[in-house]
Amino acid sequence: MNAKPAANLDADGLPPGYPLDRDWEVTPRDVQAMRQRGDRFVLLDCRRPEEHAYARLDGATLVPLQELPQRVAELEAHKDERVVVYCHHGRRSLHATALLRQAGFSNVQSMAGGIDLWSRGIDPDVPRY
Predict the structure, then answer these.
(1) Cα diameter, the chain
(2) What is the DSSP string of 24-53?
(3) Which helix (H) or strand (E) holds 111?
(4) How does pLDDT run across 27-80, given as a tens digit for each residue?
(5) Residue 6 pLDDT class (50, 70, 90 cuts)
(6) What are phi and psi of 94, to 5 degrees?
(7) Which of 6, 53, 80, 104 is the most buried (most CB within 10 A)?
(8) Nearest to residue 97, comparing CAs of 47, 89, 107?
(9) Which three-class secondary structure state does DSSP give residue 113?
(10) What are the Cα distances from residue 22, in Å, to 3, 14, 62, 73?
(11) What is the pLDDT of residue 7?
(12) Count of helix runs (H) and strand runs (E) in the chain
């Protein structure tokens, strides 16, 4: 997990010009630092099961986006904890972040660039697709 910074990423580990909204997103580097510090947070994968089977981050809970509205009660115990949601590139996880916020989750953000950016900038052993 000590990958060299990928080419074509800025100082935050994002593609140049990425419009990061810190209220809604954290970077993969932020998530890596949280894990290294031992911060308590829920890592939620909102991709489809076959995507999760192919490439995933250890410790992530899988709740596909299309099932999230029906399964939000499963996450109620984490309503006041920090939640980081990820998907393939960050679009579905932003949608999941909005759904969880509407359901009363107080500290939820999307991982910018998703697992693809994690693979590019943090851990190249995570397969890209």
Answers:
(1) 41
(2) TEE-HHHHHHHHHHT---EEEE-S-HHHHH
(3) strand 107-111
(4) 999 999 999 999 999 999 999 999 999 999 999 999 999 999 999 999 999 999
(5) low
(6) -65, -40
(7) 6
(8) 107
(9) coil
(10) 24, 13, 24, 26
(11) 66
(12) 5, 5
The single-letter code of the amino acid at 24 is W
b or e along 75-106 (b: 16 or more beta carbons within 10 Å of the residue's beta carbon)?
beebeeebbbbbbbebebbbbbbebbeeeebe
Whether pLDDT at 19 is above 60: yes
The tokens for 21 are: 């909204």
- Reference 38, options 59, 24, 21; nearest CA is 59
> What does the block give as tokens for 85?
């949601």
| Pick from 113, 13, 5, 118: nearest CA to 57 | 118
Structure tokens at 104: 């009363």
Given this model, what pLDDT does residue 2 score? 46
